[in-house]
Amino acid sequence: MTTPEFESNRENFCYRHPDRQxxxxxxxxxxxxxxxxxxxxxxxVVCPECMKAQRNAETPAQRRARxxxxxxxxxxxxxxGRPIVTYVLLAVTSLIGLLQLLPGVGRIITGELAFAAAFLxxxxxxxxxxxxxxxxxxxxxxGFVHLALNMLALWMLGQILEPMLGRGRYIALxxxxxxxxxxxxxxxxxxxxxxxxxxxxxxxMAALLIIGRHIGANVTGILVILAINFAFGxxxxxxxxEAHLGGAIVGALIALIYTRTRRREQRIWQIVLVAALTVxxxxxxxxxxxxxxxx
Length: 295
Fold this sequence. Notes:
Layout: H1 4-8, E1 39-40, E2 45-46, H2 48-56, H3 60-73, H4 84-100, H5 105-113, E3 115-116, H6 122-125, H7 133-136, H8 144-165, H9 167-188, E4 193-194, H10 198-214, H11 220-235, H12 241-260, H13 267-286
Helix pairs in contact: 4-5, 4-8, 8-9, 8-10, 9-10, 9-12, 9-13, 10-11, 10-12, 12-13
């Protein structure tokens, strides 16, 4: 059954369901597909015909890796498959970022959420002990462009990773990666004050790289984007490349844990290993020589 709108502009309607308008394209054939016809790939979505062709071209090793990963992920994804956590993170972070743009109010919000190593060593710095800033800094940004770029990256990566990992593992990956970025700033550049979700975003990119490699996907594009974004921090002043590095390392380690403990009976080990990694990050900050703040 077709509609007059479909006959006049077929490109905006699903090629398999002409009565359903959509603006999502299959990443292989570039045809429009509706929500029902979308299959999440390592990067973007794929239509049923292209997915069938892709699976027919898989090597036996790639097929076994995909089936093992899919078998472990089915019980971890939300029922709807929608990236609800990503939407919540986008809403909360965007709201805080927009409030930061308001005269007067923005300065107060930034001052309350920004992170610096001084807040971990009150005896030395004279600042109050506020370790929670290592996470609150992830939700604040240094300007509209900073906010917009990070939220665009979060939206793109979240569409892929959250349905694949499930909401619990996805939010753990995001927050612990952001925390890892703050740890790197405290260790490498203790005199730097920082805000932004970049550490968490780099964690998501690194995780997508590891998971994509694990399931046999072509990860060259992801690797190039990750390298370009990381190198960008060295050439533009005001960018805390230390947070990028810390977030990417932590995100890669968490993704490695996820891929090695994907079976149901390994769930407890997955939780233990992720918790152990978090403890290691906390201990790392605890043993940083406070004298670095004097330099």
